[in-house]
Amino acid sequence: MKNTMLALGTLLCISLLMLTGRSFAEEFFGAKFMTQKEAKGKWSLAPFSAKSFKTSSEKEKGAMATQAVEGKVFVGQDMLKVREQMGDPDSYFFSDTIYAYMITSNVKPKQESWQLVFIPDENLKKVADVKIHKKCCYETPEWVK
Amino acid sequence: MDVTAKFLAKLFCFYTFLFFGQVAYSADQICEKWFEQYIKKIQNDCELDCATFGTDMGTFHCANLCDDLCLAFKKNAASRPGRFLFYPGLTSAERKLVDQNPKEAVTVFVQKTRAELSSSRNFPVQGFNDESDAFRHYIWAGLLTKEIGAERAQLYLDAHEENRLQPPAERAMDLANNRGGILGTQRLMKNNKAFDLKALEQSALDDLRARRLVILNPGLSIPKEPL
What we know:
The complex is a heterodimer. Chain A contains four helices and three strands. Chain A has helices at about 1-25, 35-45, 60-70, 80-85, and strands at about 100, 115-120, 125-135. Chain A has a three-stranded antiparallel sheet, covered by helices on one side. In chain A, strand 2 and strand 3 form a beta hairpin. Chain A is globular and about 65 Å long. The relative contact order of chain A is 0.14. Chain B is mainly α. Classes of the chains: A alpha+beta, B mainly alpha. The interface between A and B is medium-sized, with 37 and 28 residues.
């Protein structure tokens, strides 16, 4: 009985650790991403066009971004290709190594806004992931104050 | 007699083996200690850096063990708690610094977050390579200088800029604004003013207005006082 409890406890601890690791890996510390379900509900889907993304309307951008995430656009390809085809980034997320393109237009202070981000692999060579990131508005965490 | 000679020969071999084994073990330990004192100097290529570490009469042979020492170091580094701090988009130089200095890396991460929040507060609408970007670099560099000193701060800031995905003009902008932040903090601390984030923000805004910072895509309005 005691051994069974011990084994279950260990298993629970390992699962919790793995879960924490997984959530860090997917969500990243202090960053929120839109789920595909939310994105489809908000903007629906539209064919992604790298060349016309930046000049499109917010609605078109949102729908294209949703499609980009759905189809894992540019994933596995050279990061520089993103910039080559989409143009210079017009936003920022965590580092200049991550290319960010605003979806929300005419953003006002403290208005919820979203951006399409292309996250590089460990070697900063290829696109590892594409996500829709919440740019604003986060609460200031206690550990920063 | 024959049996005794054989026994003695075996005993001699056994002790010889033990003696040389002990010497080799001690040599390994000496070299491990020697290697550890230089670990922070490892930049990009462990084997190459190791070969240039200073030696003396007691450690002159350690450079020959660099391959083994580096192999052990890399294996060890992979299991360090610093790994948990890895965030996407870190340059390889940043990863190495995080790996080698997990505690310090937490400070760097916290100050970076503070700088990002400060930039968002003072420039609620942000673009790319604009005033908010320059401001963020200035504040991060300034806060890091306060927390870990200019030399260590420079190490992390430079590591952040070792980015193949960034065009030279953008890198030059970031480096110049990082420099501004380091100097800004040094100025504030030298003047014996109570250093705080507001004072650093004011310094950054003053430098922005005086066009002492580099901005590739100007256009944002600069607040007179920190928001």
